Amino acid sequence: MNRTQWWTRGAVRPALGAMAMAWTMASPAMAQNDKMVPIATPQQKEAIVLGTGALPGATAAESWHTQYGSTFARNVTVATLTPFLPAPGKATGAAVIVAPGGGFRTLSMNNEGWDVAKALAGKGVAAFVLKYRLNQTPADMAGFERSMAEMFSATAKRPPAPQDPGTTYAPQIADARAAFALVRSRAAAWHVDADRIGMLGFSAGAMLTMATALHGEDAKPAFIGNIYGPLSAVTVPADAPPLFVALAADDPFFANAGYGLIDSWRSAKRPVEFHLFEQGGHGFGMYPKSTTSTGWFDGYVRWLGMHGYLQPKRQQVQ
C-alpha cells in the first residue's frame, strides 16, 4: 500500500487555509458554543473494558470536556466498549461497532458515538460505541487547545502518510479487534448474529474502520461505513464487505482529493454506496443542520435495510 492511500497530501493540502475553521463547521450553534469546558469524567457504568491493556508510555490521565454542546474524551489509554441494545423483541440480530472521530487526539462521544448508537438501537440494530486509545495530548486544557490549534494551522508540519496503516494504527486496530471478539463472545446474550456485525466510523474513526476492514485479521466486519473520512484509493480484497460512504462537497479535509476509494471498491466489483452532499462541512454527525447532510443517517438505515440488516435472518427472503 503506498503513501497516498491513507493520509494523502492531496487530501489535506488544499484545505490548509480552511483547517482552523473546519473545527467549527459541525454545528450551526458553534459560534456561540465552541469553547472547550473541562468536565468530570462521566460514570460509564455500561462501558466494558477491553483486554488490550493500557497505552504504552502514556503519562496523562484520561479527561473529558464539552464543546459544541457535545461531550468529548481525550488521552484515552484504556479502550472500552459501551453497548446500546434494542428493546426486547425488536432486535434484528445485526450489530454495528461505532468508532467516533477526533484526529486520534480526542473522541466525539456524543455526536459520533452515543447519539449514533441510540439511533441504531431504535431501528433494532445493536450498537457498541468503541472508545479506542488515543495519541497523548497535554494534560491541561490550555495546552490541549494550543496543540489542536497547531494541528489545524496552515503552518503546521503535516504528519507523514503511514507506509503501513496496519502498523501505524496498531493500538486502535487491536481495540477494534477486541471489540469484535467481545461482541461475538456475547452474541447470544445480546441477541446478535455473530456473522452480521459491521463497523461505522467518523473521520479518524472512518480511518480506523477502513484499517480494520483491510488489516483487522479476525475482525472482518460484515459491512462498513465511512462517514467523512479519506477517500484515497486502496487495494480491495476479493471478499471486501459492502461499503457505505457519506461526505460533504465542502469538507475542507477530504473533499478535494478525488474519490479513489469508491473507484477501488467498484473496480473490485464489491458493493458500495456513496452520498456526496453539497454542504455540511466536516463533523456534521448527528448534529441537526439545515443542510441535506443531516440525512446521511436515514440513507444509511435504508442501505442497511436494502442489505437485509433490519430484519432477522429467519425472516429474509432466500
CATH top-level class: Alpha Beta
Number of domains: 1
Task: Please write the string of helix (H) and strand (E) elements.
Answer: HHEEEEEEEHEHHHHEHEEHEH
Number of helices: 10
**Intertermini distance:** 38 Å
Question: Explain this structure to me?
Answer:
The chain is of the alpha/beta class and 318 residues long. It has one domain: Rossmann fold (3-Layer(aba) Sandwich). It has an 8-stranded mixed beta sheet with strand order 2-5-8-6-9-10-11-12, sandwiched between helices. Helix 8 links the parallel strand 9 and strand 10. The longest helix has 16 residues. The N terminus is likely disordered.
Short description:
This protein is an alpha/beta fold and 318 residues long. It is built from 10 helices and 12 strands.
Secondary structure layout:
Blueprint: H1 9-12, H2 19-22, E1 37-39, E2 48-49, E3 63-67, E4 70-74, E5 80-84, E6 95-99, E7 106-108, H3 110-122, E8 126-131, H4 141-152, H5 165-168, H6 170-185, H7 187-190, E9 197-202, H8 204-215, E10 224-227, E11 243-248, H9 260-267, E12 272-277, H10 296-306
Parallel strand pairs: 6-8, 6-9, 9-10, 10-11, 11-12
Antiparallel strand pairs: 1-3, 2-5, 3-4, 4-7, 5-8
Helix pairs in contact: 6-8
